[in-house]
Amino acid sequence: MAEVNRRSSPLRKMNVLGLLCVCGLVILPTPVQAKTWVFAVGGNRRPWNFIGDDGVLKGADLDLIQAVCDVANQKCATTVVPTEACVQTVRGRFYPGEGLMAGWFDACTSYVSSIDRVNALQFTDPIRTTTSTFTVLQGNPKNFDPLNLQNAVIVHLNGAFTNEQCTIRIGLGRPKAVLVAAGIAEAKELLLNRTADALFSPRTTFNDLEVLPGRYRCDVSGVGMMVKKDSELPVWWNPAFQKYYMSGRYNDACDQINQKYGVDDGDTCHPIKSSADTRSPPLSLLLSSASLLLFSTQFYNWISST
Ligand SMILES: *[C@@H]1O[C@H](CO)[C@@H](O)[C@H](O)[C@H]1NC(C)=O
């Protein structure tokens, strides 16, 4: 650089300056816009995010995103992507989806944090809780027993946190075989045609299948926004979510989910207790793993959690 500068004539410097000015005009024709944070949803998780019969994308997740973004004064938008854009199971292991890693969007909405997912990604503070269950055919005709997993064929959904690594972590051991279904319909078929003994998933109710009473813990800290490790999203989302929660508006919205969006089954979204004094727990409570107690574990239909 020093060499070049020594040789530069004033005229050449002016030319360089002129070039910079032209470039400046070309590069900055309009004022810089604030970033729009794009949240991806699957669009098939009523009442959280789903495309109604009218074709409109809606649900409690979308309301939450809007509310928290408003609190944070951030520009946000939602998009719809297939599950595998966010999570996938490849050769029996969890891998992040291409959409999230390649930056097609900023966040995968309401995903469960798990040991294998945090190897690859990070999560915001939890927005609700989840659980893990085994589901069998009505009456459990194959006598599936979670304590005898070594002789059972398990199915879970693609990219699910309810996977073989979790059964090993929680002490149930390695199943005889593990199948990965693309969706809940395929998982049901595998149960119905007796290829699989049980579905391992976050769901607590099915109309036509039996969810066994055991509740297991495959998550680290419930359900949050799943983002890349270099994402700045949690920096503004976490404080804004806390503010929104403390205002009581989170619980108000939660109370209305059932009425507003309906549910596929009898479960509803219950904050821990609807009494006023649970609406303002200490901040530390919200942040700690105890926050899992904020809501009942009866969050239904949590296939989602994918
Ligand atoms: C069972 O259902 C699955 C999923 O539809 C299918 O791929 C498989 O071939 C079926 N197996 C039998 C034995 O019918």
TrEMBL record:
The keyword Signal applies. Keywords: Signal. Residues 40-252 form the Solute-binding protein family 3/N-terminal domain. Residues 1-34 form the signal peptide. It comes from the Eukaryota. The keyword Signal applies. This is Solute-binding protein family 3/N-terminal domain-containing protein. It comes from Magallana gigas. The lineage of its organism: Eukaryota, Metazoa, Spiralia, Lophotrochozoa, Mollusca.
